[in-house]
Amino acid sequence: MDRRKFLGMVGAAPLVTAKAHAKAKDDLPECRIVSPYRAAAVPGMPGPYPGRVVSVRSERCVNTETNAADAAVVGEMLARGICALTGEKSAGDAWRRFIEPQDVVGIKVNCGGYPHVISAYEIVAEVVAQLMALGVAANRIVVYERFQNQMDECDYKSRLPEGVRFVAAESSNRGLQSRGYDPKTYVEADLFGEDDTRSNMMRLVSRELTKIINIPNVKDHGATGVTGCLKNLAYGSFSNVARTHRNGVSHTLTFVGTLASVEPLRSRSVLQIMDGLRGVWHGGPFARTRRYVFYPKRILFGTDPVAIDRLLLDIVEDERKRQGALSVWDRSPSSLTGDQRERDRDPNKNILIREPRHIEYAAKLGLGVADLKKIKVEDIAL
Fold first, then answer.
1. What is residue 352's DSSP assignment?
2. Which letter does DSSP use for residue 336 in this model?
3. Alpha-carbon distance 273 to 233, whole Å?
4. Residues 68, 315: Cα–Cα separation, whole Å
């Protein structure tokens, strides 16, 4: 990737009281945050390494014919990446920068791309192994996602040590179930005149976890342009988020970053590990067919989700160009279609005006490096 092209391209939540982010334009919906949680002295996002991304590549990590990953190579990539990020010589010492044995650690996976592009089993298993090597008990490690049916489909449980917990907030994406969400921690916004204007944080995130490791994928998205660190945390930790985009209009510009900025999610999300072994260049966030699967063969490391997601934009955009597909930055109404099936068949059609600018907006909220031109990428090839 041309690094020059890549580089060319709020503070803490209030205590119990409501706060509105300033509108960038009059037509942007106002988001009101309510949370009883204070920010940590050093919030997990952007964390201790703002503006830094370590990219570890290996041609041996995935067999593109079978789609199978090599666990040994993936383990080496993880060790090299976290050591390069922290400056430590051993993976154990690097992990100690983020996790202590008494922590309750959430691993935010992405199950929506099943069966071809989900948070790789090999990455998740190695992260769990490293946590347990630090002394974190298996029952203090929680793999989580919003929907139970998606987690059941992916079946991480059979691939991880006994005792590791698996938590979802709802049984499926077919109607709001409130039991898994915190009624005291939410974002309120009237986006399209919907009846339910609140998106509540998962109880697991607000009331139990002390640290979160985020493992998103490299994927395009019809509403946001790409779906990476920010969206995996935000839309994967809150209820009632699909309401942000409909009828060709996407309010994801402000909503993704606003959700990710809510405490305690912001402070507890201490490490971003983007799974770029495989990717989806069109039709995301799902991957029911291999037609749109490609192989970046890399893993990205950082504490700054804005920096990683900005690099993600170029990875997906470059692949779309190679495939002759419409740019993720296209904002022409002529590209819109009201037929989801047509969009899935034709990579030159959108169902929404995409909002890749949500990454820049998240930077303005303090979730990442303020000047995107100052992002530093360390590229390691194995």
1. B
2. B
3. 12
4. 21
- Alpha carbons 294 and 108: distance in angstroms, whole number: 23
The structure tokens listed for 215 are 């493992």
Which residues are within 8 A (CB) of 282 and not within 5 positions of it... i.e. 6 or more apart? 220, 292, 320, 323, 325, 347
Q: Tokens 């106002």 belong to which residue?
A: 30
Decide: 19 and 32 in contact? Cβ < 8 Å. yes
Question: Which contacts qualify for 173-182: CB closer than 8 Å, 24 or more apart?
Answer: 173/146, 173/147, 173/149, 173/242, 176/239, 176/240, 178/239, 180/204, 180/239, 181/238, 181/239, 182/206, 182/207
Instruction: For residue 305, say if its preceding peptide bond is cis, omega within 30 degrees of 0.
Output: no
pLDDT in tens, the chain (382 residues): 443 333 333 333 333 333 333 333 447 889 999 999 999 999 999 999 999 999 999 999 999 999 999 999 999 999 999 999 999 999 999 999 999 999 999 999 999 999 999 999 999 999 999 999 999 999 999 999 999 999 999 999 999 999 999 999 999 877 677 889 999 999 999 999 999 999 999 999 999 999 999 999 999 999 999 999 999 999 999 999 999 988 888 899 999 999 999 999 999 999 999 999 999 999 989 888 899 999 999 999 999 999 999 999 999 999 999 999 999 999 999 999 988 889 888 999 998 999 999 999 999 999 999 999 999 999 999 9
Dihedral of alpha carbons 230, 236, 241, 246, sign: positive
Max intra-chain CA distance, the chain: 56
Q: Which residues pair with 33 in a beta bridge?
A: 19, 187
Beta 181-188 vs 198-202: how paired, if at all? antiparallel
**Measured between alpha carbons, how far is 16 from 181 in angstroms, rounded to an integer?**
16
Note the residue count of the chain: 382
> How far is C-alpha 12 from the chain's CA centre?
20
Domains and their CATH numbers in the chain? 3-381 (3.40.50.11440)
pTM over 0.70: yes
Beta-bridge mates of residue 107: 143, 213
Q: Taking Cα atoms as reference points, which of 252, 296, 241 lies closest to residue 274? A: 296
Structure tokens at 139: 């029952």
In the beta sheet, which residues pair with residue 248?
Answer: 352
